[in-house]
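// run 5 | inverse folding | seed 20
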């Protein structure tokens, strides 16, 4: 057999092998997906303790853990054990409206710490004159943001409350979206339900 015939036989056999290997075997790769997380309906109960100069409503899935309870300053956490979610809260008493700017600036510095990981921020200011509430919420967007939701609320004279939401896991906010949305709704309800004493 001459070399030319052998060359053509091997070329045709190689091409046939490649076509066979690339054939459709009925399998297609599945797209990357996340586990489905079903959240329960929201249910709230009033949190009324003598330790705080205000009441609020919180989820029945959560509990309060005290970090520091001083006469003018309070540090406490609303914990969601099932979802490894934490809303860190700091209450500061004020001696009049002249202290408000410093409190707002400090709160904003905590938000700023997440800017380098954020792909955007939705800032929402609100005023509830009937219940003497005003404040701002910050929804930080981005897959690797550690705290996706922060807020502060005040009566502009005596009370200032700041908070931040954290999930105790490696940030991947696409997969955590149902949990984050659920907890952010709970935080909004908490803010709307605040009643100063």
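// decoded
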């Amino acid at each position: 057999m001459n070399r030319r015939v052998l060359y053509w036989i091997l070329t045709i056999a190689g091409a046939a092998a490649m076509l066979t290997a690339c054939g459709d075997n009925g399998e297609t790769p599945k797209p990357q997906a996340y586990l489905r997380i079903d959240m329960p309906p929201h249910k709230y109960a009033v949190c009324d303790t003598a330790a705080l100069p205000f009441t609020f409503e919180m989820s029945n899935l959560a509990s309060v853990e005290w970090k520091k309870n001083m006469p003018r300053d309070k540090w406490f956490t609303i914990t969601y054990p099932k979802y490894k979610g934490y809303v860190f809260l700091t209450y500061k008493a004020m001696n009049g409206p002249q202290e408000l700017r410093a409190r707002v600036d400090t709160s904003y510095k905590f938000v700023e710490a997440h800017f380098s990981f954020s792909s955007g921020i939705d800032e929402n200011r609100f005023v509830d004159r009937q219940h003497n509430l005003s404040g701002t919420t910050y929804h930080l967007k981005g897959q690797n943001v550690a705290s996706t939701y922060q807020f502060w609320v005040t009566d502009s004279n005596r009370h200032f409350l700041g908070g931040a939401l954290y999930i105790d896991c490696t940030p991947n906010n696409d997969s955590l979206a149902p949990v984050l949305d659920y907890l952010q709704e709970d935080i909004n309800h908490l803010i709307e339900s605040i009643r100063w004493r």
